Amino acid sequence: MMRQLIITLLVGFMTFGIAVDNADARRFGGGASMGHYSRSSSATSGQKASTPRQAPASRPAAAGNRFMGPMAGLLAGGLIGALFFGGAFNGLRFADILLIALVIFGIYLFMRSRRHAYANQQQGNQQYQQQQSQQHAQQFNTAQSGGGSYGTTPDWFNRERFLEDAKAHFETLQKAWDDNSLSDIQDYVTPELYNLLRQERAKQPDDNSTEVIKLFAELGDIQQFDQKAEASVLFHGVIKENGEQNEFSEVWHLVRDVRDQAPWYIQGIEQR
Q1: Which CATH class is domain 30-53+132-271?
Q2: How does residue 81 score in pLDDT terms, banded at 50, 70 and 90?
Q3: Residue among 221, 217, 233 at smallest CA distance from 154
Q4: d(CA 192, CA 178)
Q5: What is the pLDDT of residue 111?
Q6: pLDDT in tens, 177-200
Q7: Cα atoms found within 13 Å of the Cα of residue 200, Cβ hemisphere only
Q8: Pick from 56, 22, 37, 111: which is nearest to 246 by CA?
Q9: Among the residues of 29-158, which ranges form H helices?
Q10: Could you report the per-residue pLDDT of 201-216, keeping only the tens digit for each?
């Protein structure tokens, strides 16, 4: 009975301890650039990112690592169980208890080193993202300060309402992303972007959990092309991912028909 209890504890500890660090909650879009960019965007005119592209220093671990942790834990636990039930530790002598203690201590040291390395990486990511966020926000504002697209803003466009709606949509889509509510997301994006987002969401944890701490929205380009209008909006601020608060900066590229009450659809996400 005692041997079975020890085995159960070892397997549970190893599996949970290794797997827990591999939870990889990410914000809407997974922190990647994807989809079409606005033709009027000064920084990305004519560009298209048809497949998701990872933002620099945004993901601390590869998605596949989430599956390697539990497998490694089960394998190690299975080996120990085989030793016990195979008779290698029959009788549970003092040397066996000492060996078990050493295994547990080794796992503890390993997990502590991983957490320490992860914390250092997160700190470096935050500093990098903060610098990038400030730099790109300045570049974004500078690119618009000389008139640019504002000089050709369509008469029907309401800037204040657009930015208010944009911030509300950002938080709505973030919640839908966390809840894995693809049907809600589909109402806000183009079909092509929806397919990319659906593929990216499948890589994230089912219980994805993020929190928007600070959010700012700034208007970029807004122009009309025949019966289509395109706009870009810069979002930046602080969002909580993986239990850590991170600075972020990204541009959403939107498109709509030129008709009364026509909705805007997100056609691309660009990491800055």
Answers
A1: alpha beta
A2: low
A3: 221
A4: 21
A5: 78
A6: 999 999 999 999 999 999 999 999
A7: 26
A8: 56
A9: 65-85, 94-145
A10: 998 888 889 999 999 9
Q: Are 246 and 131 in contact (CB under 8 A)?
A: no
C-alpha 75, offset from chain centre:
29
Element (H, E) at 158: none
What's the N-to-C CA distance of the chain in angstroms? 57
pLDDT score of 229: 93
Q: Residue 34 pairs with which residues in a beta bridge?
A: 269
Model confidence, pTM: 0.59
- Report which secondary-structure segment, H or E, holds 19: helix 2-20
Q: How far apart are CA 261 and CA 173, in angstroms?
A: 21
Q: What are phi and psi of 250, to 5 degrees?
A: -150, 155
Q: What pLDDT, in 10s, does the model give residues 218-269? A: 999 899 888 899 999 999 999 998 788 999 999 999 999 998 889 999 999 9
From start to end of the chain, where are the E strands?
A: 32-36, 48-54, 210-225, 228-241, 244-257, 265-271
**pLDDT greater than 80 at residue 78:** no
pLDDT computed for residue 238 by the predictor: 95
Question: Quick one: tokens of 21?
Answer: 């660090």
Helix, strand, or coil (residue 129): helix
Question: Tokens 């000389």 map to which residue?
Answer: 146
Domains of the chain by residue range: 30-53+132-271
How many residues does this entry show for the chain? 272
Contacts of 104 (CB under 8 A, 6+ apart): 10, 13
Cβ-contact 14, 2 below 8 angstroms:
no
